[in-house]
From TrEMBL:
Boundaries of every Peptidase S8/S53 domain copy: 144-434
Molecular function terms, GO-annotated: serine-type endopeptidase activity
Stated name of the protein: Protease
GO CC term, one of those recorded: extracellular region
């Protein structure tokens, strides 16, 4: 993990299976004939007499060919509408009959296949009933098509499970030494690695490259149903990598410009963003009150209709001391573990809006930092290079850095369903459609654990 340093914003990732229960997807029955279910009121002849119900079926079908197929266990009549009859008009005829309590189509429901991504079974954070965020039901409604999500982070390292999901971004790191790509700001947000040697960054120990932005991007929009790797929450959306974090973290001045540019605002010396983001993910922060530089940039983004999602921080402390999560006009996200408790590292407090899965790849008591419970982390796209890019891989991380992109992905689903949603409405819908944490949270976890299916349903 990158430690916090005064004056520097640092990433909040802590360096670091099951089969989905099918849910039913209702589809209207089609074919040459159609079936409807008719519930008669008690006392109606057709409620008990099959002959009466059969005669009724014949009368209400335009060609007098409607048939009673059988009675259901509920007593309702299963009726076949004659070939050529309008199902809608037959149903209307039943509905206007005072002897009929209800009439409804005999919908054909099918198991909604879980995505075929080979690692999907390990993504408890998406589907597990205990403390997952109930994502598959939202995919019936939208997958985020048409929305750009800016990931303001370490940039993007090539990964085949993300390659088709990425649009042009930008590298906002001004300091060439911190950037490790040989120059200051440029149009290429590729992540060359953010590793650093001992004491190279203030007084920090050495650390390997994190590929943090690529992990975050995979949670939001990894290619899904492509028979490999992980599934992304808003896999119809595009990720815009905006690079601000280098080997020693990132500067507020660069991050603020990145927020402005990502949301379609103007930054001197930088070409206009051709695909402005409706959602910004900031899995970064530092210990400070909210800086005016952040607040001004955030307010500008929100005024352009962009929702700003921020990780609460990993210090097991009140979020009020961590910026930009403590700024106004953001969605501040705490992290929960697989049991639905506040994760041991997650910040908390009155400024938390909602909680999302951040995972725990080890227990709090493991002072060594060794990964002991990889199955309880958040699995996503990564690279195996310790310094520079090497082979692509998938690894579990934990952190509020991992929780925030769960919410950013959900926001992408919401705004895909209704592009006119304002950031304020997005935030209130997120908060209103959470469920209580199944475990415990001391200190404040906002309104609870986000629920993707319920939240997207509430967008109308
Ligand atoms: Ca550069
Ligand atoms: Ca670059
Ligand atoms: Ca995949």
């Amino acid at each position: 993990m990158l430690a916090a340093a005064v004056g520097a914003a640092v990433s909040m990732g802590v360096s670091v299976a099951v089969v989905a229960a099918p849910t039913a997807a209702a589809q209207p029955q089609s074919g040459p004939s159609a079936r409807i279910i008719v519930g008669y009121r008690a006392g109606a002849a057709a409620a008990v007499s099959d002959t009466a119900a059969a005669q009724d079926a014949g009368r209400k079908s335009s060609r007098a060919q409607g048939k009673l197929l059988r009675r259901l266990s509920t007593g309702a009549a299963l009726v076949e509408v004659a070939d050529g009859s309008s199902v809608a008009s037959v149903m209307a005829a039943y509905r206007s009959d005072p002897a009929v309590a209800y009439v409804e189509p005999d919908l054909v429901v099918q198991p909604l296949a879980a995505p075929n991504d080979t690692e999907y079974g390990k993504q408890w954070d998406l589907y597990e009933p205990t403390a997952g965020m109930n994502v598959p039901g939202a995919w019936d409604q939208t997958t985020g098509t048409g929305v750009t999500v800016a990931v303001i982070d370490t940039g993007y390292v090539a990964h085949s499970d993300l390659a088709g999901q990425v649009v042009a971004g930008y590298d906002f790191i001004s300091d060439a030494s911190n950037a490790k790509d040989g120059n200051g700001r440029d149009a290429d947000p590729s992540d060359p690695g953010d590793s650093a040697g001992y004491f190279e960054c203030f007084l920090q120990p050495s650390h390997s490259s994190s590929w943090h932005g690529t992990h975050v991007a995979g949670t939001i929009a990894a290619a899904t149903n492509n028979g490999k790797g992980v599934a992304g929450i808003a896999f119809g959306a595009k990720v815009q990598p905006v690079r601000v974090l280098g080997r020693c973290g990132g500067a507020t001045s660069d991050i603020a410009d990145a927020i402005t540019w990502a949301s379609g605002g103007t930054v001197s010396g930088v070409p206009a963003n051709r695909t402005p983001a409706k959602v910004i993910n900031l899995s970064l922060g530092g210990q400070s009150s909210c800086l005016a530089t952040y607040q001004n940039a955030i307010n500008g983004a929100v005024s352009r209709g962009t929702t700003v999602v921020v990780a609460a921080g990993n210090s097991n402390a009140d979020v009020s001391g961590f910026t930009p999560a403590n700024c106004n006009n953001v969605v501040a996200v705490a992290a929960s573990n697989r049991a639905g408790n506040r994760a041991f590292y997650s910040n908390f407090g009155a400024k938390i809006d909602v909680t999302a899965p951040g995972g725990e790849t080890r227990r709090e008591t493991d002072a060594s930092g060794t990964t002991t419970t990889p199955e309880n982390g958040i699995l996503s796209t990564l690279n195996s290079g310790a310094t520079t890019p090497a082979a692509e891989t998938y690894k579990p991380y934990m952190g509020t850095s991992m929780a925030a992109p769960h919410v950013a992905g959900l926001v992408a689903l919401m705004v895909a369903k209704k592009p006119a949603l304002t950031p304020a409405t997005v935030e209130s819908l997120l908060k209103a459609n959470t469920r209580p944490l199944p475990g415990t949270c001391t200190g404040g976890c906002g309104t609870g654990l986000v629920d993707a299916t319920k939240t997207v349903q509430a967008v109308s």
